[in-house]
Amino acid sequence: MSQSVESVYNLANFYIRHAAGQPTPQATDLGTAHDIQTRSGLPWLPLQLPFPLPYEAMLTEAQNLREHFIPHRSNKEAHRNWYSLCLHGLSSVHTGPRERYNTDLPYDWTDICKFCPVTQGFFRNVFGYQSYARVRFMLLEGGGYILPHRDSTVDELTAINIALNTPADCDFVMEDAGTVPLTTGKAVMLSLSRQHIVWNRSTEDRYHIIVHGQRDPIVWDDIILDSAKAHYGL
To answer: What's the pTM value of the predicted model, to 2 decimals?
Structure first.
């Protein structure tokens, strides 16, 4: 079996086993935002953002930089047509965490920000973070896929994924949890300790933003609590 055929077989098998699942909180005595993040066992939390998300302008800025995206994790895993570009990180083309490059250099806004005034301005002035680690445009081309993998061993809601567009027939599926309800213009907080895939069976490119950093609790505790109540009744 060729590598590409085996990859599609693994994707299809993962999809069949997990796409129809439903997330269930593992605890109900969750009185604080920190409890929800660390003790709920939730694989994802759709976010009720109290501010407008300028996703259409962000999408245009990402598309205008299309030729500058670089393959993401292609030296480690056999994903297909998955690309990234950093707005905040070690550089625009160093898309992994700093430990991958054996450096203690600080994360900072990168050179592409001058071409992304709406996106950078939103994260600097609106999003309510005290500091950022990596903030990345992510591109999964039509026909591309991200094979089953996990990014953490800690079951905790941390990274935020923002959908700038979501093509039809493009699914983000998590092990034993189902299909992440991530639609155009929406944001979801994720626990990436479960295996997950993204499979873009369409001909349209998928653009998202992934955010890592330190949230301001004055802003984000209410967002997390309101979102957990709205979607899970917690």
So the answer is: 0.95
